[in-house]
Automatic annotation (TrEMBL):
It is found in: Cell membrane; Membrane. The chain crosses the membrane at residues 12-31, 226-245. Belongs to the SURF1 family. InterPro entries: Surf1/Shy1, Surf1/Surf4. Pfam families: SURF1. This is SURF1-like protein. PANTHER family: SURFEIT LOCUS PROTEIN, SURFEIT LOCUS PROTEIN 1. Keywords: Cell membrane, Membrane, Transmembrane, Transmembrane helix. It is a multi-pass membrane protein. GO terms for cellular component: plasma membrane.
């Protein structure tokens, strides 16, 4: 009698714990499916922006209204003159939006003056600068600064704040590890700059370096695999509980 009384609460407690685990795992699986739907919608939205025709760069009066959610990756065209100011290089180990870029190197960031006087920072492209050689970067980027206006075609991008594990910028080398163009502007004396920067699509310099190019969306979409994993764990817990319950019933008979 006492054995059954002891087993009763134990079985009930284990059953409740099992239900909680199953609910958590199923909830995580459903959440991953929802994330998958959202990710597909985001990919479709970004693909549409990247495929859209170029528009004129928004007027400076409209810059405060631009946001990453509705304006990132919009294709724009404008005329500007690269300023005779120090450039910045951003370390890169590859690119999630440039399929033609692989291996370590740097992105070359330069301020460009609009005819109206405002400054837009331009990521002029990729430099195969494995060792982040400052002198090499200066020679490559210096060819772009001609003092003549040029028509630039590219994509609106927004700054990438450094994470906790992002190395600190080496200002003396003008080397950054995050695409924070406002921090570059402040450190290098570029003055007031647009709240966004432009990833250059064209034109490419005669030398081919820095290398601009079209962007493509390559967002990871592992949500279905994660959902299957969580649902499988829920099923495994249920099966394990069923096996345990049958064993308990056999002991009681």
């Amino acid at each position: 009698m006492s054995s059954k009384a002891t087993r009763g609460p134990s079985a009930a407690g284990f059953g409740i714990f099992t239900l909680i685990l199953i609910a958590v795992f199923v909830g995580l699986g459903v959440w991953q499916l929802q994330r998958r739907v959202e990710k597909h919608a985001l990919i479709a939205q970004l693909d549409a922006r990247l495929a859209a025709a170029q528009i004129a760069l928004p007027q400076p009066s409209a810059w405060p209204t631009l946001t990453s959610a509705k304006d990132e990756f919009r294709r724009v065209t404008f005329t500007a003159t690269y300023a005779k100011l120090p450039d910045a290089m951003v370390y890169s180990s590859g690119s999630a939006v440039r399929g033609d870029i692989s291996g370590p190197g740097t992105w070359a960031f330069l301020p460009a003056k609009l005819p109206s006087g405002e400054t837009v920072v331009v990521n002029t492209g990729f430099v195969q600068n494995t060792m982040q050689d400052r002198a090499f970067e200066d020679r490559v980027v210096g060819r772009l600064v001609t003092g003549e206006p040029v028509t630039l075609n590219g994509y609106i991008r927004f700054p990438e704040p450094p994470g906790r594990l992002t190395p600190a910028a080496n200002v003396s080398k003008r080397l950054w590890f995050a695409r924070d163009h406002r921090a570059m502007a402040q450190a290098l004396g570029w003055g007031e700059v647009a709240p966004f920067y432009v990833d250059l699509e064209s034109p490419a310099p005669d030398s081919g370096t820095p290398k601009p190019g079209p962007l493509e969306v390559h967002l990871r979409d592992d949500h279905m695999q994660y959902a299957i994993t969580w649902f499988s764990l829920a099923a495994a817990v249920l099966i394990a509980f069923g096996a345990w319950w049958r064993g308990q019933r056999r002991k009681g008979t």
